[in-house]
Amino acid sequence: MKYSTAILSALALCISEVVAYPSAAFEYAAKAERDASTQESLEAAMRKHQNKGRAVGFDPTAQYVSNQGKYAFKAPNLAGGDQRGPCPGLNAMANHGYLPSNGVATIQQFIDSTLKVFGMGKDLGGFLSIYGALIDGDGTKWSIGGPTPYVPGLLGLLGTPQGISGSHNKYEGDASPTRPDLYQYGNDYKVIVPQFKQLYDMQPNAATANYDLDVLTDFRASRFQQSIDNNPYFFNGPFSGVLVQPAAYTFIFRFMGNKSAEYPEGRLNQEVLKSFFSITGDSNNLKWTEGNEKIPNNWYKRAIGDEYTIPFFLTDVLAAAAQHPEFLSIGGNTGTTNSFTGVDITDLTDGVFNGATLLKGNNLACFVFQNLQNAVPDLIKGLFLNPSGPLGQLTSAISSVTAPFVCPNLAKFDRSQFDKFPGSKGFVA
Ligand code: HEM
Ligand SMILES: *[C@@H]1O[C@H](CO)[C@@H](O)[C@H](O)[C@H]1NC(C)=O
After folding, report:
1. How many domains does the chain have?
2. Nearest CA to ligand 2 atom 7
3. Heme haloperoxidase family profile domain: from which residue to which, for each copy (predicted)?
């Protein structure tokens, strides 16, 4: 698909703003981004991130991730209640003792371990973990799979926390890489082997295979269209679709890729991909074993100082959207396959944003995070007896992301626009 120069220059403007943002609360990311110039093109911003790994240098001792000793692989006891779910990164960490093997951890444990094992920026890890604790947990801890007695429905909660497997349209969404669409298959976390095989076969030569962002963006476009073609209830939500969906793709290369002096931003070959996705066998005989995601032997994470932060992630989100503008269309099928209808952003936001300005300045980031700010109070009203404490945490996390953007004020968000999409039932974010 070709993209217009208008979109590209709008994106370039957006990127320059995004990259320049200094975060107050998450100083970790701020330090990394403060040097950014304000006149960068999208390509320049991306190049800067890409080159950071090389600039920082490869340190095998610091980047080696142990899968030995206390970090040796231990398969989960799924029958005994250990939780595993739609996220292969979190599953692998729990299988190697970087997270508790029961699949339940606190916000701090998630932030520390995603940084330690994958080099996830503390801003990104913090935001994802706090959101998880509110939406899928008890405000302090949550399950990487489904509900569990380790996160009981007690102490000021109005129901039983459902874990990330039970967070459809709030966190987990449609058109994931290897996991099924919930309303099409009845679950959202069991690998569909043909989906994995489609990705795997996009780099058929084992000697040269590298599942990089180009490959993953093509794969995502194909998966997006498959959901339109096959899932009458496909829904591409403002948060679950516009922001979580790209993460599910970019994380594959950004985090799973094996870093080295030669390839500081990583190379992701067939064996490493299969290991992290708990797949064995060759292309004609691929087999998925639930919950056996493994950190490969002799594997190296992102460089220290080259963490994958929110601004870095946003450049990847925009680069993918520049190639495939459909990724940003919020909407869904209307109850039959191939009926995708986008909502008008103007109607959704009472005129504050529109399709054209969404790609200008920081509008996309403003739109997505302000939508969350607007959605979450209602969302957690149904979950916590006294939501003000948990809400404060998320509000401050969101503010520290958006404060430097100078966002237009989004006072209203008309969620009734989603009524025509049967796949958006329940509360969507
Ligand atoms: C606290 C941090 C994290 C949270 C809260 C989180 C949460 C999630 C959720 C809710 C999904 C389902 C999204 C969907 O519907 O497609 C998901 C998928 C995914 N996550 Fe994570 N995740 C985290 C960290 C990581 C890390 C460190 C990796 C590193 C590899 C990772 C890799 C992935 C991938 C590749 C998928 C897509 C799986 C597929 O459908 O094939 N995540 N994650
Ligand atoms: C990662 O790259 C290094 C350097 O090229 C190599 O020695 C190591 O075997 C690779 N690890 C994996 C899991 O492919």
Report:
1. 1
2. 298
3. 69-319
